[in-house]
Design brief:
By secondary structure, the protein is α+β, with helices and mostly antiparallel strands. The chain has nine helices and 37 strands. The strands form seven sheets. Strands 1, 2, 18, 26, 27, 30, 32, 33, 35, 36 and 37 form an eleven-stranded mixed beta sheet that branches. Strand 1, helix 2 and strand 2 form a beta-alpha-beta unit. The radius of gyration is 28 Å and the shape is elongated. The two termini are about 25 Å apart.
C-alpha cells in the first residue's frame, strides 16, 4: 500500500544533486517495452539483485520488492514457511518479512484442558479463553443409529472436575465402506485458541472403547500445514490420523501427505479408561524426514468414530495440551528455520518481524532485537495506550519501524455500502489523527493501504484514509500487503499487493531506512509486478517520501514509472495540507494530470505543480479498465514547518 509524498533527493557524496538520468539507467530499456506489455503471468522471473535491468533511482538505489505481512505455521491457518517461500519465489518477490502473531507464538489465553461438559458453552477457566463450538462431521453411508454428544456417564476418573464425556458411534451401511461420525473443534469465537505451531506440543486424552467391534476405529485427526511438493509427494495439506483400535499392534505409516498412526487400546467391559499421549512433531519427523518437522501447525482437531463394517462406539474425555515451546523460544526457532529454508529458497531474502496483535489495532514490528511482549504484566491497561505509550516508543528507541495494519479490521467478506464505508473512514480518521501530544496513528511509521477489499472497505477508502493523514501531515509510508496465512496462490488473491523500496541493498538496515524515508511504492502482483517501479522528484532534489519547505508558488515535479500495463495510465494527484483535523476528516485530493502508458515509454515526464497552498503529491497507476493497481508514496510541498515537525529521514 502506498500513498503520496513530496520528493526531495539527497545530495551526492561531492555535494552535487543527483541526476534523474540515474533512474533511467536500467529502467529505460524496460520502460520502452515493459510499459506496453499486458498483465504479467505468475512467476515472470526475478531480476537478479545486481541486474542492469533492475530499475535504479535518481539516488542510485535499486528497486527491491517485499512481501511485508506474511504468516506461517506459527499463526492460525494452514500456511507454512515452506509454502510461503515458494510463493515468494514464484512471484519474484525479493524479500519476505515474517510477521506471525505474537500471542499465538506465546499461546496467550490458549486452551490446555477440555472437560467435555458441553458442545457449545464449555469454558476452560481463567486464562483458557472463550468457549469452543464442537461441530458435527459426517461422512460415508452412516446408519440412522450413528451419532454422538455429551453424556454425564461414563466419565474418566483422571479428570479432577469430572462432568461429562464425548460419546461417539458410527455404523456403515455397507461393509468395507468407510463411514464416520465425529466433532470438529471449531473455536472461532475463542479466536482459535488451540491453533499454533506443533513443535514441542503433546496432546493427552482419555479414551474408553466399548467392546464388541473390530472393523473400525476411534480417531483423533489433526489437520496441519500445507507444503509444496517434496520427495515424490504432491503439494498439499498434511494430516495426522491417530486411530485407536481394539486389537493389533502399533503402527505408523505415511500415505503420501497423510500420516496414519495406529494405537491399540484394549476394550474395557468394566469401564476402565486408557490415557493416550501423542507428540505430533515426533511423528512428523519420522513420517516425512525431507521436511522440517518444526514447520507444521495444529490447524484442525476432529474426534470421530469410524466404521468399516462394525458398529464402532466409545468415549473421549479430559483432553489436555502440553506446550513446552512458546514466546521467545518459538521466535528463536523461526529464526533458525529461516537459515535452513534459505538453502531451499535461495532467491528470497528473509527478514523476521512480528505482528503485535493480542487486541485491535494490530501493528507489525520491523527491526532489530524484537522481543515477545509480555501480556501477563499488562493488567487492566488499555490496548491503544499500551501501543502508543510503551511498545511503539520502545521499538523506535531500538531503531525499528511500526506498521499500522489493516486499519478497517482484519475481516473478509463483501464491500459494505458506500455510505457506510465513508462513515467508517471518517470515524477511523478521527481516532488516528494527532491528539493533544501530537502523535498520529499511535506513532506508527507505515500504514497498510494496498488492500483491494478488507474489513468491508475497498481500496479507495483505504487510500482515502491515508490521504486524510497526509492532509494533516501525519507522515506515513503507505505499503501494500496480502496478509496471507495460507501459502496457496499469492498471484490469485484479491489482496495480492506487495511493497517495493528504493534501497541500497536488501540488508535490513537499508530496507528500514528506505521505508522510514517513504522511498517506496506498492502494487498488485497481477498488474504491477516484477520490473515495475514508481518514483517522484521535485525540483531535481526532493525525492518521493520527503517533506520539502519552500515559499515558491510553483514547483517542478518529475514523475517516473516503468512497467505500466498496456493501455494503462499514470495519474498525478495533489492533496491539500490544511490541518483540517476533526473538522473535516475527509480526503481533499484530486487528479491534476493523467498520462497514457505510451507517454512514459522513456521512464519519466515533467510537469509544473501549483504550490501557492501547502499540499502533497503522489501518483497512481490504472490498468486498462480504470482500476488502481499501484500507488507511489507522496512528497509534501509545504511552506512552513508542520506543527509536529518533520521526521529526520524525510527532511531535505
Amino acid at each position: 500500500m502506498c500513498d503520496d509524498h513530496p520528493v526531495t533527493g539527497p545530495p551526492a557524496a561531492d555535494g552535487s544533486v543527483l541526476s534523474r538520468r540515474h533512474f533511467l539507467h536500467g529502467s529505460a530499456a524496460l520502460a520502452a517495452g515493459a510499459a506496453l506489455i499486458g498483465h504479467r503471468s505468475p512467476a515472470p522471473g526475478r531480476l537478479p539483485l545486481r541486474s542492469a535491468a533492475r530499475p535504479v533511482a535518481a539516488d542510485s538505489n535499486s528497486a527491491y520488492s517485499m512481501a511485508m505481512h506474511v504468516h506461517s505455521s506459527f499463526s492460525e491457518f494452514e500456511g507454512s514457511m515452506d509454502a510461503q517461500l515458494y510463493q515468494a519465489t514464484a512471484n519474484s518477490v525479493d524479500v519476505l518479512w515474517w510477521t506471525d502473531h505474537d500471542f499465538r507464538m506465546d499461546g496467550t489465553e490458549y486452551r490446555d484442558t477440555v472437560h467435555f461438559t458441553s458442545l457449545t458453552t464449555e469454558k476452560g477457566g481463567p486464562g483458557q479463553g472463550a468457549a469452543w463450538d464442537w461441530q458435527v462431521q459426517r461422512s460415508g453411508p452412516l446408519t440412522r443409529g450413528s451419532g454422538g454428544g455429551i453424556v454425564s456417564s461414563p466419565v474418566t476418573p483422571n479428570d479432577p472436575e469430572p462432568h461429562g464425556s464425548l460419546r461417539l458411534s458410527a455404523q456403515t451401511q455397507s461393509s468395507g465402506q468407510r463411514a464416520a461420525y465425529g466433532y470438529y473443534a471449531n473455536c472461532k469465537p475463542a479466536h482459535w485458541n488451540y491453533r499454533d505451531n506443533l513443535t514441542g506440543q503433546s496432546l493427552r486424552i482419555d479414551v474408553l472403547l466399548n467392546p464388541g467391534w473390530d472393523s473400525g476405529y476411534l480417531e483423533m485427526l489433526i489437520s496441519t500445514s500445507y507444503h509444496e511438493a517434496s520427495a515424490g509427494r504432491p503439494a498439499g495439506q498434511y494430516s495426522l490420523a491417530y486411530r485407536l483400535v481394539p486389537s493389533g499392534g502399533q503402527n505408523r505409516e505415511a500415505q503420501r501427505n497423510d500420516g496414519v498412526i495406529t494405537i491399540p487400546v484394549r476394550p474395557q467391559a468394566a469401564g476402565e479408561w486408557t490415557t493416550i499421549t501423542v507428540t505430533p512433531s515426533d511423528d512428523i519427523a519420522v513420517l516425512w524426514p525431507d521436511l522440517d518437522y518444526r514447520d507444521f501447525s495444529l490447524y484442525g482437531l476432529t474426534l470421530s468414530a469410524v466404521s468399516t463394517g462394525d458398529d464402532v462406539s466409545g468415549y473421549f474425555d479430559y483432553l489436555n495440551f502440553k506446550r513446552t515451546n512458546s514466546g521467545g523460544e518459538f521466535f528463536a526457532q523461526q529464526a533458525d528455520m529461516m537459515t535452513g529454508l534459505s538453502k531451499r529458497y535461495p532467491a528470497v531474502s528473509q527478514q523476521q518481524g512480528l505482528e503485535v496483535s493480542w487486541r485491535s489495532p494490530h501493528v507489525n514490528w520491523f527491526g532489530n532485537d524484537i522481543v515477545m511482549p509480555d501480556y501477563r504484566s499488562m493488567g487492566t491497561r488499555q490496548w491503544a495506550p499500551y501501543l502508543e505509550d510503551t511498545l511503539i516508543p520502545e521499538i523506535h528507541k531500538d531503531g525499528g519501524l511500526v506498521s499500522y495494519n489493516h486499519p478497517f479490521g482484519y475481516t473478509g467478506g463483501p464491500p459494505l455500502p458506500v455510505d457506510r464505508q465513508n462513515s467508517m473512514m471518517s470515524q477511523l480518521a478521527l481516532s488516528m489523527l494527532p491528539g493533544s501530544r501530537g502523535v498520529g496513528a499511535l506513532g506508527a511509521d507505515l500504514l497498510e493501504v494496498g488492500y483491494v477489499l478488507r474489513g468491508g472497505a475497498n481500496l479507495a477508502h483505504h487510500v482515502g484514509l491515508w490521504d486524510v493523514m497526509s492532509r494533516n501531515s501525519v507522515f506515513l509510508t503507505g505499503n501494500g500487503t496480502n496478509d496471507d496465512h495460507h501459502g496457496l496462490n499469492w498471484y490469485g488473491l484479491t489482496n495480492n499487493w506487495t511493497t517495493s523500496a528504493w534501497a541500497a541493498s536488501i540488508a535490513r538496515a537499508d530496507l528500514l531506512s528506505a521505508l522510514a524515508a517513504g522511498r517506496a511504492w506498492c502494487g498488485s502482483l497481477d498488474g504491477f509486478g516484477d520490473g515495475s517501479s514508481l518514483d517522484l522528484l521535485v525540483d531535481g532534489s526532493c525525492p518521493m517520501g520527503s517533506v520539502s519547505l519552500s515559499k515558491l508558488p510553483s514547483r517542478h515535479l518529475t514523475v517516473m514509472a516503468s512497467g505500466l500495463p498496456r493501455n494503462g495510465s499514470l495519474q498525478v494527484l495533489q492533496g491539500t495540507v490544511d490541518y483540517a483535523g476533526g473538522a473535516d476528516p475527509q480526503p481533499d485530493t484530486s487528479v491534476i494530470a493523467s498520462y497514457p502508458a505510451i507517454e512514459l515509454a522513456l521512464g519519466e515526464i515533467g510537469l509544473t505543480v501549483d504550490t501557492g497552498q501547502e499540499s502533497f503529491v503522489r501518483t497512481q497507476v490504472l490498468d486498462a479498465g480504470g482500476n488502481v493497481i499501484a500507488l507511489s508514496n507522496p512528497a509534501w510541498l509545504l511552506q512552513n514547518v508542520p506543527p509536529h515537525g518533520i521526521p529526520g529521514p524525510r527532511a531535505v
